[in-house]
Amino acid sequence: MKNSPKPETIFVLLVGFMFLQTIHFSPPVANASGSTYAVGIVDDAFEPLHINVTTGTTVTWTYVSTGHEIHTVTSPYGTNQTQTGTPLINSGQLSPGQSFSYTFDQPGYFPYQCQVHPTIPKMNGWVMVTGNPVTPPSTNNGPGNSWLLPAVIVALAGTLAIVTWTLVRHGRHHKVSNQ
């Protein structure tokens, strides 16, 4: 009778082999805790491919090679979307020499890819963001005084109406008393 390996042994060997493959073939992970971090788009690859940053970090992807292809930096379909369903990270088309920046204000896992080359493994990366949520700076120039301009216009119009009415009334009064 032949000695065949036990199913447990086969399982342990398969898991061990898969673990070794992941260590051996995983691209290096870059860590950043500063306020900005740069990623290069070189030929058909993001370099570095995987990034760990803290909240508030701005990542800038720059198409540094002189290729002739268009690339994008875009959240894959079904991940990290805005409330309207558009990709959260969305550079649009980038040509050589162009850059795209995104500030990560929320912690989480943010995969990104080139929409033109989604099947190329080195064009599918991720950003892992840790830390507490950061409130982005306001793009508003004030505390929301949308009522201020109409109120000023109404006040000026009211003042003009009162002054005009007073002058007209005062002019009639002088005409009547002079006759």
Number of extended strands:
8
What is the 3D shape? elongated
Unreliable runs, pLDDT <50, ≥5 residues?
Answer: 17-29
Helix share, percent: 25-40%
Number of helices: 2
| Share of β-strand residues | 15-25%
Average pLDDT over all residues = 77
Total of domains: 2
CATH C-level class of the largest domain? Mainly Beta
Radius of gyration: 32 Å
Described by strand count, sense and barrel closure, the largest sheet is: 4 strands, mixed
CATH architecture of the largest domain: Sandwich
Task: Write out key terms for the chains shown.
179 residues; alpha/beta; Immunoglobulin-like; 2 domains; 4-stranded mixed sheet; 2 helices
Q: How does this structure look, described?
A:
- This protein has 179 residues and is of the alpha/beta class.
- Helix content is 28%, strand content 25%.
- The longest helix has 31 residues, at 148-178.
- It is elongated and about 125 Å long.
